[in-house]
Amino acid sequence: MYEEKEYPTLDKLLVRVHDKNIFPGGRTTLFLLLKRMGFKYHKRDDKMFFYERRDIIEQRHSYLRKIREYRRQQRPIVYLDETWANANIAPERLWVDKHGRGGWKRPSGKGQRLIILHAGWEEGWTPNVALVFVQRPRVLTTTMR
């Protein structure tokens, strides 16, 4: 349905699953099954509604098949992630005395940004692959006329 950009309704879905011999039950049973799977039928939010392209869906299926096969073969699967932190990061709230004194003055600006990349797997962090670096400042140029 999504690939044809057709709005999925319970009745349309029921026809599809019956045509493909995927589900032999009735409308109420399908409704309860969808609810149990976490689906909700409510007013649509256009900001959250999207259709995935067919090639993206196929890539995801291919990826999941490969991961399943690698796990069956007991091959190690390594995950890569990244994060960042600003040098002047400070908590929004802190404890102060009854006169409002205490803590420290928050530095102005975000400061330099550290970018952190690392890889790990079920045995823990992968040794000697951490990458931490300081982001270069962007130089903005403007043309005044």
Plain-language structure description:
Helix content is 27%, strand content 16%. The protein has three helices and four strands.
Given as residue ranges, the uncertain stretches (5+ residues, pLDDT < 50) are none
Which percent band covers the strand fraction?
A: 15-25%
Give the N-terminus to C-terminus distance in angstroms. 53 Å
Per DSSP E runs of 2 or more residues, the count of β-strands stands at 4
Which secondary structure elements does this structure contain, and how are they paired or packed?
Elements: H1 10-19, H2 27-36, H3 54-72, E1 79-86, E2 113-121, E3 124-125, E4 131-134
Antiparallel strand pairs: 1-2, 2-3, 2-4
What would a concise description of this structure say?
The protein is of the alpha+beta class and 145 residues long. 27% of the residues lie in helices and 16% in strands.
Considering the chains and any ligands shown, give keywords for the structure.
145 residues, alpha+beta, four-stranded antiparallel β-sheet
